[in-house]
């Protein structure tokens, strides 16, 4: 598969500064197209998407078994980006610095089914070596990632993070989901990581930019504390 040349900007330590964007697109083609523009404007290197449109399941996109979670890299990510596996509601890939999981858990499934999905995710994460980022829409609320409420799903996810030594990377309490017609908003999008990678993730914030979705863009930057031994072009491998 053709490689994608990396051209990430340098961070303060001399290593790459990689922008990561996270968003739920509600399977909307217009939102998918707008993401392409936002990616260019933000010079993003990794895109984590929940509920992609049909266009977001083609080309370089890596997608889970159900078509609910997707992830890809752009030419702003140096090094490799390789598909590691696909689950039901999550897909994961390995970069030169960490393994990253893109997740989507529907709010419409029974709590027993949700717990079963979390069990599957936990099994895979436990078998994954090295530094890990887990990101996506869990449709779960907990003060641990900025929500003012704690629900059953939020309690389950918080306990999962604790068992796996994953730290929430979310900062602040800005709503990641909002529906003006209902006057409703909440924080149901989550980013978490192992300690080594969590401390290298900075600038996590909810963007004001239009997304054409009821979820807002989440922006963060990965800046390695140590300079990598080699800077190689990024290539995306689907395995």
From TrEMBL:
Pfam family, one: Exo_endo_phos_2
Entry-linked CDD domains: R1-I-EN (cd09077)
Domain Endonuclease/exonuclease/phosphatase: 99-219
Alphabetical list of InterPro entries matching this protein: Endo/exonu/phosph_ase_sf, Endo/exonuclease/phosphatase
Protein name (database record): Uncharacterized protein LOC107227690
Domain of life where this protein originates: Eukaryota
Encoding gene, per UniProt annotation: LOC107227690
GO molecular function per UniProt: catalytic activity
């Amino acid at each position: 598969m053709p490689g994608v040349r990396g051209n990430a900007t340098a961070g303060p330590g001399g290593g790459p500064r990689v922008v990561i964007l996270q968003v739920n697109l509600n399977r909307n083609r217009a939102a998918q197209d707008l993401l392409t523009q936002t990616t260019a404007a933000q010079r993003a290197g990794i895109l984590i998407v929940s509920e992609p449109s049909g266009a977001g399941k083609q080309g370089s996109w890596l997608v889970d078994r159900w078509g609910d979670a997707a992830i890809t890299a752009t030419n702003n990510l140096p090094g490799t980006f390789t598909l590691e596996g696909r689950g039901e509601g999550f897909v994961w890939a390995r970069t030169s610095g960490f393994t990253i999981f893109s997740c989507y858990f529907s709010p419409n499934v029974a709590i027993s089914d949700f717990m079963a999905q979390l069990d599957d995710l936990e099994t895979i994460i436990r078998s994954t070596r090295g530094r890990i980022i887990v990101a996506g829409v869990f449709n779960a609320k907990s003060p641990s990632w900025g929500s003012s409420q704690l629900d059953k799903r939020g309690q389950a996810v918080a306990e999962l993070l604790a068992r796996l030594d994953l730290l929430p990377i979310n900062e602040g309490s800005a709503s990641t989901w909002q529906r003006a017609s209902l006057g409703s908003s909440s924080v149901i999008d989550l980013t978490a990581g192992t300690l080594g990678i969590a401390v290298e993730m900075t600038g996590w914030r909810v963007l004001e930019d239009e997304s054409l979705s009821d979820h807002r863009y989440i922006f963060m930057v990965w800046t390695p504390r140590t300079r990598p031994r080699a800077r190689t072009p990024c290539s995306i491998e689907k395995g």
